[in-house]
User: Fold this.
Amino acid sequence: MNSKLVILTLLTCSLQACSQQTNNNMDNSQSQTPTQQSGTSQYRKLTPEEEYVIVDKGTERPFTGKYVNTTATGVYVCKRCGKPLFTFKDKFPSECGWPSFDDAIPGAVLSQPDPDGERVEIECANCHAHLGHVFKGEHFTNKNTRYCVNSISMIFVPADSTAGTK
Ligand SMILES: [Zn+2]
Assistant:
């Protein structure tokens, strides 16, 4: 009787410890930085497709994105937090299948090598949403840089709609 109780207690304890650990892992950023939590609650809610690219650093299929061939005047903002990332002025037709820019709005985009070191990832400097990759030395434009961005990571804001807020 007693030994059964002990085993049960031990089992319950270890289960609790296990679930606590899982919670800790999942909520790490939120529980430790409450200010960030209030910030993230302002982020746009993402669909599973958006989350696949923006959070899980996936890549949309080439030539399927909404902004591959967009040339209209305006600004491309982060889909998750809304910060301006690229302008139409820096967009160019690369025919690689994804929207391409040879420059970003200063300070808006962070770049860092992929874990395998093969490519350089770009992300939103504000909310760290995955945007795509940046390539140099391809001689597409004078700046010799190609920000290769997933359409799904951005929202295009036509110039007309920003004129009043400028
Ligand atoms: Zn962002």
About this structure: Strands lie at 74-78, 84-87, 100-101, 109-113, 120-124, 130-136, 145-149, 154-158. The chain has four helices and eight strands.
